[in-house]
Specification:
The protein is an all-alpha fold. It is built from 10 helices and 2 strands; from the N terminus they run ααββαααααααα. A two-stranded antiparallel sheet has the order 1-2.
Length: 232
Amino acid sequence: RGMAAVYLREMLILRRRILKQFASWLVSPLLYLVAFHYAMNDTLVGSRPYADFLLPGLVAMSSMTQSWAIASDINISRFYWHTFDEFQTAPLHAAAYVTGEVLAGMTRAVLACLAVMGIGLLGGIQIAYGAPGLWLALLLNAWFFSSLAVALALHVKAHADQALLSNFVITPMAFLGGTFFPLDRLPLPHAAQAMQAAAIGQPVRFLSCGLLFLGAGAAFTWAIFSVRSAQG
């Protein structure tokens, strides 16, 4: 109970700045697509064009970065607007607060990924945009990073510390997540690999999706305990 109010608040904020958000969602993927796709246009990954490998990776990266961005909004509400103090005094269960924030992060991630896919369509990149495996991995990845963002946002002591967390979490994952080149010997790129496989018509990678599910569940549980700790 109360989850809908938390989610509605985040969506009202998003609606007021949707044009700016939409522009920001497009900047990094468009730059990466131009820099890597057109620089490596003749490169093949397996037997497929490099663009078929790159675009699902950019979708995976966008789902990560945009779901993680909810942490900044949480910190602003804690340290500047003190909205979190109001949530603490309200009869709001920690799980309801976490669910509302996580769903808000996932919504932002899905909208950003749709924008990236739109770039791919306009650029003539032919992949299976509606593949169930692609969307399953996207949602699990967004769930994981939204939950992780909520958990860690409740542990930072100042808004400036959030940039440090991004440098230690998001930056390494962006380059070690299999977005720009295959990383066969590293265990990190489960989301990117699952999306890239689904995008070219391969079966759903249940092992990668299962690991994403377990990680997201663990991060979600940690987020709930983090909220309870902050309330105490």
